[in-house]
Design a protein that fits this description.
This protein is mainly alpha-helical. About 25% of the residues lie in helices and about 0% in strands. The structure holds protoporphyrin IX containing FE (HEM). Protoporphyrin IX containing FE binds near residues 38 and 43.
């Protein structure tokens, strides 16, 4: 957690913000939004909605654990 993206121009984005899916660069990358920083991931096509939902739920669940362990998981 609290690791910033390294993509050019995206350095101020945090990869995973525990509990905040919409604030997480990881989730941005799998969404087909015109506003995302860098390239959409995976490069060869958008993930199915149910898989994106799993990622979203995982990030939200991370928020449940009292600030979270830095190396938790
Ligand atoms: C489900 C599959 C994938 C996910 C969730 C994913 C996620 C991500 C994320 C979060 C970043 C930003 C990392 C950072 O800035 O620190 C990234 C960057 C990147 N990934 Fe992926 N990735 C996936 C598949 C792939 C594949 C298959 C390739 C290559 C064949 C790839 C190539 C790259 C490249 C070149 C970048 C840097 C470009 C950029 O910043 O937009 N990724 N990916």
């Amino acid at each position: 957690m609290d690791i910033n993206a390294i993509g050019l121009g995206c350095e101020s984005d945090v990869l995973v913000v525990a509990g905040d899916a919409d604030g997480s660069h990881l989730l941005d990358k799998v969404l087909d939004l015109p506003t995302i920083c860098g390239l959409q991931m995976p490069l060869v096509g958008i993930l199915p909605p149910d898989e994106i939902e799993i990622l979203r739920q995982w990030i939200i669940d991370l928020g449940g654990s009292e600030g979270g362990a830095l190396d938790g998981g």
